[in-house]
Amino acid sequence: MSVDTEEDQALLQAAANFEEAALAVIYDQYQGALYRYAYRLLGDEQLAEECVSDVFFRFLKNLRKGGLPNENLRAYLYRIAHNWIADHYRHGRSAKEQELDDHLADDQDPAEDANTNMNREQVREALLTLTLEQQQAILLKYFEGWQNEEIAQFMGKRIGAVKALLHRSLVALRKKCARQE
Predict the structure, then answer these.
(1) What residues does CATH 1.10.10.10 cover in the chain?
(2) Backbone CA torsion sign across 101, 46, 51, 17
(3) pLDDT score at 118
C-alpha cells in the first residue's frame, strides 16, 4: 500500500483519527506478512508475535503523536519490525529452542520433518550471520516477494545497488550454508 494514492491517504487519515475499521484493515492486511518476516529472522513463534504486536503498538503511538508515514506504509511497518528485531539481537536476547511438535500427523515422516527443520534452521542461522542490510534484502526479495523497486524505495537505494546487494548477499549465504554441511 503506497501512501501516494488517494485511497491510501484516506485510509491512513482514518487510521490517524483512530477509526476502528481503518485500523482493522491495516492490521488484517499486514499482520500475517510481518509475522512471517519476524519468524524467519527470530525462529520463535512467541518472539515473532511479540514483534508484530510491538510494530502495531509503535504505529499507533506514532499516529497518536500526529505522525503519518511519509513513505510506503508496508515499508514503514517492515522498518519498525526490522528495527525491533535488530534491537532484540543487539541486546543479546537469545531465541528460544524450537520445541518438537508431539502431535505429528499420521501421514508425516518424522525423519523427513526433522531433516526439513534442520535445513530451515541452518539457513536461518546462516542468514543471521549476514549483515542486517543483507538479511533484509534477501528476506524481502525471496521470502516476501517484493520487487527490486520496492526494496530500493524501502532501503533508500538505487535499483542497481539493490541488485548488487542481493547478488553479494546470496553469494555470502551460499558460502555460509556450504560451510555448515
Answers:
(1) 112-181
(2) positive
(3) 57
**Amino acid identity, residue 1?**
M
Question: Which tens digit of pLDDT belongs to each residue from 106-156?
Answer: 455 666 655 555 567 777 778 878 888 898 899 889 888 899 998 998 888
In angstroms, the CA 140 to CA 52 distance is 16
C-alpha cell at 150: 520496492
Of 137, 103, 111, 127, residue with least CA distance to 39: 127
- Show the cell assigned to 142: 525471496
Which regions of the chain carry the CATH code 1.10.1740.10?
Answer: 1-94
Identity at 96, one-letter amino acid code: K
Find the length of the chain: 181
**Residue 27: which residues within 8 A CB-CB, separation 6 or more?**
56
What's the pTM?
A: 0.67
Asked if 164 contacts 133 with a C-beta cutoff of 8 angstroms, the reply is no
Nearest to 58 by CA among 78, 41, 33: 78
